[in-house]
Structure of Molybdopterin molybdenumtransferase:
Amino acid sequence: MTSRHLVPILGFAAYSGTGKTTLIEALLPKLTEAGLRIGMLKHAHHNFDVDMPGKDSYRLRKAGASQMLISSRNRYALMTETPQEESEFHYLLTRFDQQQLDVILVEGCKNIAFPKIELHREEVGKPWLYPNDDNIIAIAADSQVDDTQLPQLDINDLEAIKQFVLDFVARKGEAEKQSTGSSCCDILSPAFLSVVQGQEKILSLVNTVSETEACPMQQSYTRVLAQDIISPVNVPQYTNSAMDGFAIRGDDLKCEHYQVVAEVLAGHAYEQEVLKGQAVKIMTGAPMPLGADTVVMREQATENGDKVTFNGVCIKVGQNVRQAGEDLAIGSDVFTQGCRIESAEMGMLASLGFASAPVYRKLKVALFSTGDEVQAPGSEQKPNTIYDSNRFAIMGLLEKLGCEIIDFGILEDNEQVMIDAIEQASQQADVVITSGGVSVGDADYVKLALDKLGKIDFWRINMRPGRPLAFGQINDKPFFGLPGNPVAVMVSFINFVEPALRKMQGETNWQPLKVNAIATEDLRSRQGRTEFSRGVYQLDSAGRLTVRTTGKQGSGILRSMSEANCLIEISPAVDTVKVGECVTIIPLQGRI
Ligand code: AMP
Ligand code: MG
């Protein structure tokens, strides 16, 4: 479990200029003298290289070793390249051999939630961190503050800091001993999953439909190719002019006056050979006449009756000509199986002469809402009801993915009605999706019904919004029981249902787009859970990608989803993101 570590973790938080490294450097000999075996984790903001250009390890690493372990009599060092993204804090901690350590001290990583001592010097002139950071457990400073209960140490009294660290390690060791046996918390219960665990579990349990069909190009948008596509033709089919201009021979560039012998438009051809001293007036896309291999653009030509001159123009043999098969040669790979057909793919398939595409059959998805309080739109609102929004939001999401929707409407809170309807849905559809009725404390018949129907697990995902999720199989068809709250429904769909549907549709190599943006407001989360806030990203005046939230983030406020153009994803290891810091965003364009 990533959140459990064998040894205590203690950090030092401070603004740069406070002398963090100098202090820790002076502290370490005192701690090792007292018997502590210390691991250090230091976060560097900038790129760094631990070995020098020219060293063997450096050369081998640069030559392509993604992990480089160098060892000698006195030490070894493992350098691991992480070109995609920086490793997660908890993962990094697992890299230590914790059996050999009593404590891991951390310098940096100030957004990550774990206990820290704040270092503060008045002359640095920076604000205090502790008022906004619950992870600070003590202060070491050169001045006193009176608005806090935190232990205060003198930053210049290394003995006192040493003692604090020793006490901290001893206290943690004691707590650890007491908790072993009753071994930790519900995080280990199988019903409690991280977002990634939930995604992986679901993906491992759904399969691509096996049936395929030929789909007319006009209807192929969002369909998924069931076969590789090989080009049956050359694109372009024939060598042609890339410009409006004059086609001449490459061995005849120096002629004073060329005789214009013909004019060819696209779709036509000059059937004779172009001879020396001759030029053919040619339009973009028209086939190059025999003998000619070079085009001089019209803007560089001086026409005089049936003569043309290119005085002073620098002409290169072969210029402004598109060769047959230059874009795609006959027999070359165009698309691979599992590629989703969107506008460009439609155009390209058509350009190769395909009137239809070999695709997987459409996925049929049955859809329900549940709850006695849920009322269909279109009739006058009854007391104590809400209009059904989930079914329609999900319809839109399914539409985007090109699914065929079977709408089963709203199910009343009645066990037998549920059982019958879901049973029937699973016969007709490839996937069944419901919303509502899966959170703790919900009317039991929803769960009873699902229990009777097949193997359904009720999960609690460590995320917000969207903690409850039911997933399982009914008549071998995947079943998703989404939460009831409208935002939670959409966020759960995006995270769990969409990847599964894409796999079932046959799409391969799909990954949700994630990019980094700079937060323009403080974002709070909670350690141990993934937070998906609704965000609006935009480029600021300096051209940097920034993001803010849409405001109130209640999971019933569907408007936040409508105003958002991204989800802001705060990983479980992070508990606050401060203004100016980077955060992961998931753009929503094309997905909702
Ligand atoms: P539940 O998980 O069934 O307790 O639902 C959680 C919340 O979501 C409740 O406030 C429900 O009223 C609401 N809810 C459930 N289904 C829908 C729906 N189809 N449309 C809008 N809100 C819903
Ligand atoms: Mg309900």
Notes: The first helix runs from residue 20 to 33. The pocket of adenosine monophosphate (ligand 1) is lined by residues 369, 371, 373-374, 386, 388-391, 435-437, 439, 442, 483-486 (CB under 6 Å). The two ends are 33 Å apart (CA to CA).
